[in-house]
Each structure stands twice: as C-alpha cells, then as structure tokens.
Amino acid sequence: MQPDPPLEIEALGLGKRHGRQWVLRNLDLNIPAGSSMVLLGANGSGKSSLLRMLCGFDAASEGRVAWHRGDLDLTRHHVPGHMAYCAPDQSLILDLTVREHIEAHRRFRACLPDMDTEGILHLALLEGHPDSRVRDLSSGMRQRLSLSLAFTTAAAALFLDEPVSHLDRDGRAWYANLLGEWRRGRTLVVASNHNEEEHPRDAARFEIGN
C-alpha cells in the first residue's frame, strides 16, 4: 500500500554557498510526483548538498524550492515529516539494540501498514541480530538497517545518498530487490557517484559539474 499522494518538487535558481564558496548555483529542476531522479556527480560536486536542499534539511543560499503533495503546499520545515532519508553518514543510535532502534523509529514515524518490527528485522536480514548493539554491526548491516527503515516509513518521497555504500555484492543485490519491491510508487531522489546500481534504469538524470 503506497502513501498517497507522492511528493512533487520544483526548484528554481537554486544555489548553495558554504562560507564564501559557492558549491551550486543557478539550478532549475522539476521532479514530478511519483517519478524518480538521480543526481549525478563526482565527489565534491555538491550532489549531497543539493539532495539535502531538496528534502528540506538545508536552506538554499539563493533561489527557491517548492514542495507539493496533491493539493497541499508544504514549507521546508514540514517536508521532513513527509519523506524518508538515508545517507552513508546517517547517524544511528549506536547504544541501542537493533530491535530497540526499530521500535524507537516506529514510535516517531509511521510505517507502511503491512510492516511491523519483525518485518523490518526480516527485510534488513537482521533476524539473527535483534539484541545486538547497533555499534557492533558491520557497516553493511548498518546500511541495510538504515535503508530498511527508510523504505518501510510511510513517506511520500524517498531521498537516498549513495545507497549502495558499504554494501557488498550480495548487499547490492538485496538493495536492487528493495528498490523494486518497496518503492511502491513514491517519489525517489538518489544522489549517486555515477553508480548504475543505485537508481532505477528509467530515472531522470541531473548532472552536476564540479
């Protein structure tokens, strides 16, 4: 069951400055509701900065971003409540067990109707580690946990930053299945260092230069 409706995003003249240095300027893009887009760029190109502006985490230094969910217009401060996000440097609560972390997530964010704690453990391939501390998991296990939490959140859009980071060959196959089975028509925005495994083949491409 997909959350309805998915998120639409429009950006006009978007720019981001860190101190005196502009990392992005004069970007225009439109992401229709329910579509997928991949932000392509090398390390340091600004793709993560663009992703964080599009999901409402960071304010733009110039230009504007507009978010629409059906007839509802959202402000930047409301957008995080309508989306799910996963990045390699995403903070997990290391002292919690895997089960505690999932249950804490579910207290703050609604999950898809057909998903519960046991289902998330199964999806993340962590059924054998419910009582392990998150700090004791391998980097690949933590990435599967983060991705599983994102995809099972009842969100209108999914924002993923280099989602196959820390995943081995089996983990990348697991992610491909996750992308196919659990996106469920939601808007998808992926920041990628030109890795074809990270996004759907039909995703619109937005190239970011250095």
Please tell me about this protein's structure.
By secondary structure, the protein is α/β, with parallel strands linked by helices. The protein has a single domain (8-207), classed as P-loop containing nucleotide triphosphate hydrolases (Rossmann fold, 3-Layer(aba) Sandwich), CATH 3.40.50.300. Helices cover 26% and strands 27% of the residues. The protein is built from five helices and nine strands. It has helices at 47-54, 98-108, 117-123, 139-152, 169-182, and strands at residues 8-18, 21-31, 36-40, 62-69, 72-74, 83-86, 157-161, 187-192, 204-207. The strands form two sheets. A five-stranded parallel sheet has the order 6-7-8-3-9, sandwiched between helices. It has a four-stranded antiparallel sheet with strand order 2-1-4-5, covered by helices on one side. β7, α5 and β8 form a beta-alpha-beta unit. The termini are far apart. The model has no long low-confidence stretch (mean pLDDT 94).
Number of DSSP helical runs: 5
Distance between the termini: 40 Å
**Count of distinct strands:** 9
CATH topology: Rossmann fold
| Side-by-side strand order of the widest sheet | 6-7-8-3-9
* CATH second-level architecture: 3-Layer(aba) Sandwich
Mean pLDDT: 94
Low-confidence segments, given as residue ranges, are none
Percentage of helical residues?
25-40%
Major beta sheet summary:
5 strands, parallel
- Structural class by helix and strand composition: alpha/beta
- The count of domains is 1
Report the C-alpha radius of gyration, rounded. 17 Å
